[in-house]
């Protein structure tokens, strides 16, 4: 009588037959054929996690487990919308296994789960995603892909090594109008590209503070040690979590990390730029603990087939003009509603939203809004009169939905997601180089991507690859890379 092999037993048996190096990782779901309903672990079940779980469920996943540092069963009265959101998530998936530590859940559930969503603060993205990929799980990870540059490099490498299907959560990447604009830019509608300008009105949380708030009692429903995880310890205060962690260097990456993966997406994707050669941030109010209240950053890129002969720049603007941090309220006080954005020489009277981008070519400009409202507009010279509109070259996502695209890639009906880690990893590296530039404003930083170092600035290496807290060492996570 033949013994039926489980997937894990098959991996072990096959490895013994042909050499363990060929089977360093469990076989991802796609190798087992189409699944009736892929099973999902949601890491981060409140806030953005709620939307990610809803999107994944709609696409066809079966949520069988949830990981979060907040256990709603230990909560008293529901006091705020985020707490209420957590309770609603638990109620929506009453049969899902729950745990505070995603590391334990990934190990314990084993073959019961096919995929994970990672909807945690930035400082947990790497550990959660890499452990899942090493276990053969497909990963949908929120933006920015990681908290640090080395982490982004490793994430892309491990995704390639394991063969799992990956997607970063910059949802507009799946929209038809973005993909069409990528095709138009590459086809030369506005000529060779000279500049990309991108902006947002965020931060909408506190940034620019010089010291932590006073310690307060940790709510009994929160596992604060697990929330801190790999980052340096700081005493609990509601000014940190659940919402304002983005304004902390140790946990988030500020307005730039929050929004650039959305807003820079069109320009970066269209240009296929390779790594930047340098980056500089304007003088700003960054502190030891927190990103600046507002910033302007410029990356320089070498020339390529889509750029002007001397290369091109990507420019970033964020934050409100003349805003100040108010320590008493722990908020940003705005002097006005004016926020950083390109000048009139770039906008030329065009109405701009609270976020947007302009791609400047030698023969015109493309104005883009990722939300789809007044999605894009052209301002060109006579070069466009004889322009041949290109045929679509990028696949379109079903329903213009990046959760559905991830599901379809896992099921094998499409070869891959378009915001896969091989694209999202290098874009995140570029953005996070800008985050480092915010720490040393006014200094032009030359970037050696091959060595993964800032030229002649060894003291900045700690921001490229940071140390982790005890119990969170990454050595075993990347040992096969």
3D structure, described in words:
- With 481 residues, this protein is α/β, with parallel strands linked by helices.
- The protein has two domains: 7-173 and 473-478, Rossmann fold, CATH 3.40.50.720; 175-396 and 420-464, Dihydrodipicolinate Reductase, domain 2, CATH 3.30.360.
- The chain has 14 helices and 17 strands.
- The strands form three sheets. The chain has a nine-stranded mixed beta sheet, covered by helices on one side. A six-stranded parallel beta sheet has the order 3-2-1-4-5-6, with helices on both faces.
- A hairpin with a 4-residue loop joins β11 and β12 (331-333).
- The longest helix is centred in the C-terminal third of the chain and has 19 residues, at 421-439.
- The model is unreliable at 1-23 (pLDDT under 50).
